[in-house]
Amino acid sequence: MAVLSQYDYIFAIGTFFALLDAYNNGANDVANSWATSVSSRSITYRQAMVLGTIFEMLGAILVGARTADTIKNGIIPNTAFRGDAGVQMLAFTCALAGASSWVMWCTRHSAHVSSTYSLISAIAGVGIATVGASKVQWGWNNGKGLGAIFAGLGMAPAIAGCFGAIIFSLIKVVVHIRRNPTRWAVWTSPFFFLIAGTICTLSIVYKGSPKLGLNKKPGWYVASVVMGTGGGLAILSAIFFVPYIHAKIVKRDPTVRWYHVFMGPALFNRPAPMESEQSVVPNYAVVQEDDLPDFKTPATLVGGTPYASSDEGKERDLNDLPELDQTPALKPTHYSPPQQQVTFAKSYQELMAEGEERFHAKLRSQRGPLGWAMRTLHENPMGPGAIYELKNIRIFAKRLPAMITCGALYGLHYDIHAAQSGIHGTPEGARMERVYSHATKYSNEVEHTYSFIQILTACTASFAHGANDIGNSVGPWAVIYGAWQSGDAAKSKAPVPVWQLAVLSATISVGLITYGYNIMKVMGNKITYHSPSRGTSMEMGAAITVLLFSQFSLPVSTSMCITGATVGVGLCNGTLKAVNFQRVGLLLISWIATIPIAGTIAGVLMGLFINAPHFSS
Question: What is the pTM of this model?
Answer without folding.
Answer: 0.81
